[in-house]
Request: fold
Amino acid sequence: MLRLLLLGLLLFGLMTGLRRGWLVIQWAQLFHDAGFTQIQPDQPFDWKDLIFEDQDNSTAQ
Reply:
């Protein structure tokens, strides 16, 4: 029971930090490190470029 309480507090703290701007996720760097080499880590990241670019390439072939 204590584990669930601590997990809940951890998640609550992470969400609060993200909402208030204490934590910032650099999505471009995260995806580049995960192996998406088409994303440049030093340029701004746009979600629609990642989603729609793959669909455009697959329908063109």
